[in-house]
Amino acid sequence: MALHPTLRLWVWMLLVVVMLAELPGALQKCIFDEVQAQVVVVRAAPINPHIPPTEPRLRSKSGQQTYHPGRRVSHLRSLSVKHRSLREMDPPTPSSPQPIRIQSWIPRESNNLSEAERERVEAAMEEAVRMVSSLLSVNRARGPLLLSRDINKYCKFLWRNSSSANYNRCGRANNNYRSETCLDVKIPDDHLAGCDIFSEADSPHRTELRLDGAGLSDTDFLLYLHVQATDKCRAEPKVLAYAVHCQTDTHGRPLAGVVVICRDRLTAASYSHRAAVQTVIHELFHALGFSKDLFQTWRDCSSTSQVGAGCSPRGKVTHSDGSGQMRIYSPSVISALQQHLGSTDPELGGPLENMDVPPGRVSSHWESRVLSGSIMAAVLGDSTTVRIDPVTLAALQDTGWYAVNMSRAQSLVWGKGEGAMFGSLSTCQDNSSSFFCTGSGFGCHYLHLHKGECQTDKYLEGCRVYKPLRNGSECWKEENGGKSAEEDWSGEIFGFDSRCFFSNLTSQSESIQSSSSVEGRCYRHRCTGLNRFQVRLSGSEWVDCPAGGTIQIKGYQGSVSCPARRLCVHPEITPSSDDAVSAFPASITRQVSL
């Protein structure tokens, strides 16, 4: 028996209240900035042309190697480049940039994974790395990658007299020095360059404290993949993964980092491959340069055909606009955002998230109100909404370290063509944009794949949007229709080609005299052209639905609103094909922590 529209609305509201009560802590924070602040980043020392080349190494009786000027050892001259440190490696070749080679390294303590866990990790990492490598290219250095040792760890003091021959070299070893780490991962000695001690300020005599490792061939970025139930994972139950970078080259480009995947999330019933891939890509982008600690080291390569080398520092790229919003002002970012919002405003830099950030400081995420759905927003929503967007790729291009394949950018629907003021606190509540809503009614998520409720959260700062509900909101799931879907007074049809429409239709065949309120309803749709489509309800024929207009349906009272520039515009935005995604409730709590 069909419920009266008013009674049905009250039942729906009651269900939402119950669902929200079951889902505390709806929005989950990204902890990248918090974790990165705990890491000491080691930057490779540039080659000093005023320091003479090192002398050949000879083994001393004590087992250490000592160095004597003028003694020739001819066979050492034929050593492979892999036995030279990063500081002494050949510079990048002048050839065109090549896709970045990211090599994953799983520490020993992560080797006790079950077969299912390992398969999930490997599948997510392989797809994420393949995607990033298709987007970013670098000028490759010849020879294996060797990471640097932290001179402040292995050295007790440095020679500080700038006129001495060994200026800034280590004069005495720290006897407590044991190893190098990246976050909580111990870096194998085989991945590290050696280090020397110069006991006299002006003497070339030196003692080798550690030998060079073999390094890693065919590697431009080394990713230590740590799968553990860490303290941070336990402290943040909703966090799926977090990352840091810990080594950079002489031009500031990150060379190594860690991605920690919280092991408990791999076995959870709600695990989604698609969401895991997006999260790993998000963390990789952080580690590769989208980080507040690296913004000031971005480089301007406009005067050279190369990336990384031959570029000049950009200087400070983050500044506050007139409203106090911190933004990234770099050429590609400004251009990409202007194109996205359809504005020529020169103040339109990339807005950075200001939630939980002191005034005048910056975060490593885009402002959610302006760039919701971006892969680098502070919170990732349902996996069908997350996009590797042009503004994010523009930021990576402006690092100066990468050549970026902008043709692979995914279209960002949120805010498209809405103008320079879109997402501002002064306009989000004045009904000037259909992306925002007011009140607490029911409607459609902006991609029209889900029904939603008008809500806010701390990242929206009072602005309200239609967020997918937890249960039964996916229009594209046939099972959400129930057995009596075809007999429903609302005419709803659930299925793969169904989308959410604002509607107050009620069947004229039902003995219902009062009209229902406007809410989100699921109807079938099919595209007939760009931004052109038809809809079909239970018992109706296909009817043209003019974008931006409203229509009436024979046999129903009320009307249906036809969204503009949302349907039949972005064919790549479809329901997820990942079966595991369906295990994630499409809800306001379906946010992936990073």
Question: Can you tell me about this structure?
Answer:
It is elongated, with a radius of gyration of 29 Å. Strand 14 (about 240-250) and strand 15 form a beta hairpin. It has three domains: about 30-290, Elastase, domain 1 (Roll), CATH 3.10.170.20; about 295-410, Leishmanolysin , domain 2 (Leishmanolysin, domain 2), CATH 3.90.132.10; about 435-585, Leishmanolysin domain 4 (Leishmanolysin, domain 4, Roll), CATH 2.30.34. The chain is an alpha+beta fold and about 600 residues long. It starts with a helix and ends in a 33-residue tail after the last strand. It contains ten helices and 32 strands.
What's the layout of helices and strands?
Elements: H1 5-22, H2 32-36, E1 42-43, E2 57-59, E3 65-67, E4 98-99, E5 102-105, H3 115-135, E6 136-138, H4 151-154, E7 155-158, E8 170-173, E9 181-182, E10 185-186, E11 195-197, E12 207-210, E13 221-228, H5 231-235, E14 241-248, E15 254-262, H6 263-267, H7 273-288, E16 299-300, E17 312-313, E18 318-320, E19 326-328, H8 331-341, E20 350-351, H9 368-371, H10 390-398, E21 403-404, E22 442-444, E23 451-455, E24 465-468, E25 498-503, E26 506-507, E27 519-529, E28 532-536, E29 543-545, E30 550-551, E31 556-557, E32 560-561
Parallel strand pairs: 1-14, 5-13, 13-15
Antiparallel strand pairs: 2-3, 4-6, 6-21, 7-8, 9-10, 11-12, 14-15, 16-17, 18-19, 19-20, 22-23, 23-24, 25-27, 26-31, 27-28, 28-29, 30-32
Helix pairs in contact: 3-7, 8-10
